[in-house]
Specification:
Number of strands: 14
Number of helices: 28
Distance between the termini: 78 Å
Strand order of the largest sheet: 2-1-3-4
Length: 708
């Protein structure tokens, strides 16, 4: 019994198909007709109460089932109507006769006209409109997917969300694309259902008149009236559910621009426009005073709207006054709590305060006057809380705790500008508009949006500053819209990531080692300082952080570094051994879905690079000729475009012996490029080479072959 219940929907679909061939008793047919109408009402109400279309993700499949159910009932009712051969009773079932008499009211012509109006209204207005909305929604949803993915990656990198939240948001984006794609096809079923209803109605009417005349039900007028009532009743019990399902289809594909249920949205948005309601009421009341107009209805509706609008305006004013009073009280308390600072001359009379000017902050951020509300927590600024979240996330991901960031305003900057300094020197700057949103341009926007052209500061993406009222339209066109605080915080986070290796100090290195000592005391006592000095270990950690390799697995790093130091004193080679030991970490950092797309080096190129390695007292360095360097950089520039199309981190894969030297050379030209060695990739990863850097001689030979 339990298994039958679990498969009840599948059994129901099979039974619906059987309706097409098995005659049904009139009583059962009436129950099924009422069930069909009830189910349509339930579906319509669900689509009006949900806040998100994905809350009713089974709708495309349910649409197909209800359409099949309705068509099966149409076949059964057609059999009941055309199977009538005179005698007592009437064609069809009691429910069909009731609906037929209800709409005709004894006037067949009037009933037919009303029925045709209902059918055409559904076919031309509701069904066609729902089909168009579903088509546009599917296209815009698919086009907006890359921008939404970029926004998720930006939030993840800035620490606003974790991996689990990012995965849930990506799954939701994929489900939305699948849902609206299915709805685009499902609306064709609705259109076909409306067309089929017209055909069945015509068949019932014409076939009924022919069969009634042959069976001697009565004269032609009697036959026409008898079968017309049944046909109209049958069409009505079919069209009413079809109309409600069509309305539900249009309703669910428009839920993407809603914040709650339809009732909450309508009430809330109308309540936010009391002046429009009051003005409409006054206009209707004035129209009621014009001679010749329906005075009583106009005055009743006009006065009602005027009173409602006036009450809503008073309520909004009281609410705003209360909020303003609360804000004034908070500001007054903040001013009383802030102690008056001493004058500058008095402050620097103390020599110790002068020495404080010599300190260099590890990270410093200066901003103009207009950006203070984004930082000041007393006025609702959230930048500090965002930085705290980022510091925690970065520590979990990279194993390094970034130092405190000094935030202060600067009169030397423009009102909308900000500067990021590392150890007292400027490394980045940007400008944001607080009262605007930043819209990142997609590859192929669906439309043009008005705004101030700019470039997104963190990733260099062409963008526009747009007004808040254009936010929804920009998202429809495929733009990724970001608030000003997120723009500034993302830029700060990316700058810190790029310069994190500079922030690692000797004191921080010793702190990391002390923290490791809690879990691996024997390892720390064996390695430090007998085998490895803190200075050498600091350089190894800096080498890893500079190329984006997490140092969280500190025990492995210390153990491998100690073993490698016994064979060589070259810290670059020690770092390469550590990177090989962290292959799982590096693979997870750069690999996506078990695949790694890379650019490789031709064997001849690697040989020439190895031949360019030179050793002196300071160690090994790369002394590459300018021709070969220019050739590699030029070819790599062409290959970088492929990664832009794939939305993946650019990676060059090479042998371990030249990896570090090639990475340092290419970092001057392509800062976002990562150079990995084969030893740093685990065996379960599928490597796909999307390009190859060849030697100049190989290129010349290839050109000669093409020319010949």
């Amino acid at each position: 019994m339990r298994r039958i219940f679990q498969n009840s929907i599948a059994l129901m679909v099979v039974v619906i198909v059987l309706f097409l061939v098995i005659p049904l008793p009139e009583a059962l047919l009436d129950i099924l007709i009422i069930t069909n109408i009830s189910l349509s009402i339930v579906i319509l109400l669900i689509t009006m109460t949900i806040a998100d279309a994905l809350e009713f993700s089974i709708f495309p499949s349910l649409l197909l089932i209800t359409t099949l159910f309705r068509l099966g009932l149409n076949v059964s009712t057609t059999r009941a109507i055309l199977g009538f051969n005179g005698g007592s009773g009437a064609p069809g079932t009691p429910v069909i006769q009731t609906f037929g008499n209800l709409i005709t009211q004894g006037n067949i012509v009037l009933g037919i006209i009303i029925f045709i109006i209902i059918v055409l209204m559904q076919f031309i207005v509701i069904t066609k409109g729902a089909e168009r909305v579903a088509e546009v929604a599917a296209r815009f949803t698919l086009d907006a997917m890359p921008g939404k993915q970029m926004a998720i990656d930006a939030d993840l990198s800035s620490g606003l969300i974790d991996e689990q939240q990012a995965r849930r948001r990506r799954d939701k984006i994929q489900r939305e694309a699948d849902f609206y794609g299915a709805m685009d096809g499902a609306t064709k079923i609705v259109k076909g259902d409306a067309t089929m209803s017209l055909i069945i109605t015509a068949v019932n009417l014409i076939g009924g008149i022919i069969i009634g005349s042959i069976n001697g039900v009565g004269d032609l007028a009697t036959v026409a009236q008898t079968y017309s009532i049944a046909t109209i009743g049958d069409g009505l019990v079919s069209q009413l559910p079809s109309l409600m399902i069509s309305t539900a289809t249009g309703m669910i594909v428009t839920r993407s621009v809603s914040d709650g249920s339809l009732n909450a949205d309508v009430v809330g948005q109308f309540a936010n426009q009391p002046k429009a309601i009051l003005t409409s009421g006054v206009v209707l009341a004035l129209m009621g005073l014009i001679p010749g107009t329906p005075t009583v209805p106009l005055l009743l509706v006009g006065v009602g709207l005027s009173v409602a609008g006036y009450l809503m305006i008073n309520r909004m004013e009281q609410k705003e006054a209360a909020e303003l009073m609360q804000q004034s009280e908070e500001e007054a308390q903040a001013e009383l709590a802030a102690a008056a600072p001493p004058s500058e001359s008095d402050y620097y009379k103390d020599v110790n305060n002068v020495y404080a000017l010599l300190n260099v902050e590890p990270i410093e951020m200066e901003f103009g006057y207009s950006l203070i509300p984004l930082v000041d927590e007393s006025t609702g600024g959230k930048l500090i809380s965002r930085i705290v979240i980022f510091r925690r996330q970065y520590a979990q991901d990279m194993g390094f705790v970034i130092p405190s960031i000094r935030l202060h305003d600067s009169s030397a900057l423009g009102t909308n500008q900000y500067i990021v300094r590392i150890k007292g020197e400027e490394v980045a700057r940007g400008e944001i508009l607080v009262d605007y949103y930043l819209a990142l341009e997609p590859t192929n926007p669906m439309g043009e949006i008005d705004g101030i052209e700019t470039v997104e500061p963190a990733y260099g993406i062409p963008s526009r500053w747009i007004l808040p009222e254009n936010k929804e339209m920009a998202e429809i066109y495929g733009y990724t819209v970001i608030d000003p605080l997120s723009v500034m915080q993302t830029h700060l986070s990316e700058v810190i990531k790029r310069h994190s290796y500079e922030l690692l100090t000797r004191a921080e290195t010793m702190q990391l080692v002390e923290n490791l000592k809690k879990s691996a005391p024997e390892l720390v006592e064996e390695v430090f300082p007998n085998i490895l000095s803190y200075a050498s270990f600091e350089k190894i950690l800096r080498n890893l952080l500079k190329e984006g390799v997490p140092i969280r697995d500190l025990a492995t790093i210390v153990g491998v570094a100690a073993d490698a130091s016994a064979a060589t004193r070259d810290l670059d080679m020690v770092t390469e051994n550590v990177r090989s030991a962290l292959s799982r970490t590096i693979t997870r950092r750069f690999c996506e879905h078990g695949q790694l797309r890379v650019v490789t080096l031709d064997a001849e190129v690697e040989k020439r690079i190895i031949a360019s390695l030179t050793k002196n007292e300071q160690g090994i360095y790369l002394a590459m000729g300018p021709d070969l360097m220019q050739h590699i950089v030029s070819q790599l520039g062409d290959q970088m475009k492929k990664f832009s199309d794939l939305s993946q981190t650019p990676i060059v894969l090479t042998s371990q012996i030249i990896r570090v030297y090639l990475s340092r050379m290419l970092a001057q030209f392509y800062p976002s490029l990562y150079v990995l060695s084969f030893n740093e990739i685990t065996n379960d990863v599928q490597i796909q080479a999307i390009g190859n850097i060849t030697s100049p001689r190989a290129d010349s030979a290839a050109r000669k072959v093409v020319a010949s």
